[in-house]
Amino acid sequence: MRRAGRHWLVLQVALSGSLLLLFLLPLVALFTYAPPSRIWAAAENVQVQQAIWLTLYASGIAVLAAALFAIPFGYLLARRRFRGRAVVESVVALPVVVPHLLVGLGLFLLLLPGAPLGRLTTYLGIPIYDTIWGVVLVMVFVSAPYTVLASDLSFRAIDDRVLESARSLGAGPATAFLTVTLPLALRGIVAGLLLTWARAVSEIGGILILAAVVYPGGPYSGPVTSTISVYVYNLFQQGDLTDDAAVSSVFLLLAFVIFLAVRLGERSGWLPWRRGELEP
Amino acid sequence: MTTWTVEGMESTLDEFRLGPVDLELRPGQTVAVLGSSGAGKTTLLRTLAGFLPLTAGWIRRDGQEISDLPPERRGLGYVPQGLGLFPHRTVERNVSYALEVRGRTDARARSRALLERFGLGDLAARYPARLSGGERQRVALARALAADPEVVVWDEPWQALDVEARHALGEVLDDLRSTERIPVVLVTHDPALAFSTAEEFLVLRKGRVVLAGDAARLLDHPPDAFVARFVGFENVYDPAALAGGASGSLVAWLRERSGPDGVAFGRPTLSALPGEGPWSGTVSSVRPTPEGLSVALRVDGLTVMLRPEAGSSMGRPALGARIAFSVEEKSLHALGSPVLDGRGKA
Prior knowledge:
The complex is a heterodimer of chains A (280) and B (346). Chain A starts with a helix and ends in a 12-residue tail after the last helix. Chain A has helices at 2-33, 36-44, 46-79, 85-97, 100-110, 116-124, 132-156, 160-168, 173-202, 205-211, 228-237, 241-268. In chain A, helix 7 (132-156) packs antiparallel against helix 10 (205-211). Chain A is globular. Chain A is built from twelve helices and no strands. Chain B is elongated and about 75 Å long.
């Protein structure tokens, strides 16, 4: 029995370790390809900083939009019974599986000056092509499903009896949602938002078609630039592998620090959504 | 002090129908709701608490109808099965929740007082996941009482508690009844809790009331096999167990006296070995119990539980020995009383 348990543990470690290696090796290749001095130089490069800033700014707006639209959507899917729910759930998952160049093309066609959405954005004075709105639109399209799905699962996992307790204790539906449902679902929702953010910053296919170059306009008043994914892609197209690896390393480090900060914040109890699981 | 009156209350949950149920909750009264799984006990509590709409009948508070009030305005303390504690709030903030949502400025002081009263003062900063079963029960009750409810409904108070925790919780319930005079409706599968705390009993079967009354009525007229076992009848036989059996056998004798749901009787006592009586069986097990030996006999394919009379000289029967016994006809209860109309009337 003990030997079987050890074998099972070895198998788990071997499988998990293999996957972890797969995650790590390409990153190690990136970090080791460019010397530290080039990575430092990339970090100090103004154009790189502008691309990173645009990426963080646009992805931040995309995450806010996901929170605004996708969390209520997830709640609706989790808590309401309605006809055609399976169809709606499939449509929500669609952006995850559709090749993102197709997404860009679809949005491009939809926003043509003669198309209904194109006419609407022109009428509202919101330019999409080659603006931050184009970047945000693509990012929301490809990444919001993660928040919808995570919210759906998180709301579904809450015991109805906890919510009924809140109601019987005097909380109306809105108060119960804000004081019990949302805090309990928050951990899963935050995980979904993190995935949304990660997916948004890594998007390239749709952005290449809709906003490969971003000009000032709308909420963005910075210089002409592109998202970091497009910036790295352009360097690769130029055959500048060392600079490409250096810029990628800078952005990877930044993303890693953001993820690590959230995880440490959760574990320390500074971020609220895991407090019930922690001591005391 | 208010009195809640429930009259002809009906509700539905998917395909399940509850009712009609009639109930009066007077100050200081405890009502135990009994019934097998799926009988509708939790549905009854959820309907009282306002989570399921009434499809017929009404609920009145001192004569004023409250059937349509949402849960948050009923003034009812609901402790669901599993307790429904808020895992993301500390013990103190669980207890103060009802006061916080009402914007009460004394939330902290009142919740501290409740914590002290329930012996939870030292646990105020803990989260529910770090509490024992008994502590969690006390937190749930303290939380339900924080906003001074008019009625407390509690689904399975003793679930998963050890003997000591049950005893402590029983004392809390007694205190609630005698000092606060709050009517309590309990759902329980525990005869000890039911008989030690409740004056009134409501027995449900498939959503319908099959018995409403006090303990004596429950003991004298067990309406079905579930209640018969609940009140302590060890010899309970359904119609399938009584099929067959030669003329003159115990099975045939019981079948003639059976109701639609079977028949039940208590443990006959044995005065001496070899015993006397028209029936006899083979000893299949003998086990000690707090009340003395419990002897199982196999008779005509049935298992009959017997108990040697206190002070009898018969000693411990050997496995496989044959023992004769009799069953008093007046101790038999035909099971399967007609379904009542909620007022305890057929």
